Amino acid sequence: MSGGASDLFGALPEPPLPDGMRLLRGYADSADLAPLLAAIAEAAPFRFMTTRGGARLAAAMTNCGDCGWVTDRRGYRYESRDPETAQPWPPMPVPMRSLAVAAAGEAGYPGYDPDTCLINRYAIGAGMGLHQDSDEAEFTSPVVSVSLGLPATFLVGGETRSTKPKPLAVVNGDVVVFGGLARLLFHGIRPVKVGHDARFGPFRYNLTFRRARA
After folding, report:
1. If I label 202, which of 55, 60, 120, 122 is the partner at 20 to 30 A Cα–Cα?
2. How is the beta sheet containing 152-156 ordered, strand by strand?
């Protein structure tokens, strides 16, 4: 079972977050989101994408919305259609979009209008190295990141990859919003530890809402 951040990571104080970043503890209701994720995955199944160099990413991915983030030998980009099915990505469910818009407003970014949601599925032992969300057409809109399932350690880096990141514990239902001065900070996820969530099993899911197109 997944628990609270203090139960799983020790009773440590929350680290100070950079300007432009907010952590909304328990803001998302996983009970409402679970069936929506299942429907998205049925239409556009999770898959392991590869980088331009041919390396397989550790997290399985899918998308919903007007476009979806993809990577292959051609590099990182957004596509209107799922390259595996040649069909449009599933529409972004209204409750998911409403959650992202509300979270952005709570974090100080009113008028948020996401057009895509990248969904990562992390198995036990999977993580993601430090990277920027920099494939979008504009960076005035924040990124809204929703954690579901198993807990993880979100790494908050700096403006360069060499900056030592600070760990931030995230658990089921937590939402991290980063925009403004934090929009292009490097960030990542430490490998997910062994566990089992009552609703999502041995996985961590991350919903990343973005405004990909100008």
Report:
1. 55
2. 128-131, 187-189, 152-156, 166-170
If one counts the domains in the chain, the total is: 1
Q: What is the DSSP letter of 41?
A: H
Residues recorded for the chain:
214
One-letter amino acid at 79 equals E
Cβ–Cβ under 8 Å, residues 43 and 90: yes
CATH number assigned to the domain comprising residue 159: 2.60.120.590
Q: Is 143 exposed, middle or buried (0-12, 13-18, 19+ CB in 10 A)?
A: buried
**CA angle (65 as vertex; 187, 181 as ends), nearest 5:** 30
Distance between CA atoms of 63 and 38, rounded to whole angstroms?
12
Residues spanned by the domain of 93: 5-210
- Closest CA relative to residue 10, chosen from 189, 146, 150, 169: 169
Question: CB-side exposure of 180: number of CA atoms within 13 Å?
Answer: 13
Q: Residue 43: what are its φ and ψ, rounded to 5°?
A: -80, -35
Tens-place pLDDT, residues 83-124: 999 999 999 999 999 999 999 999 999 999 999 999 999 999
Separation between Cα atoms, residue 160 and residue 210, nearest integer Å? 21
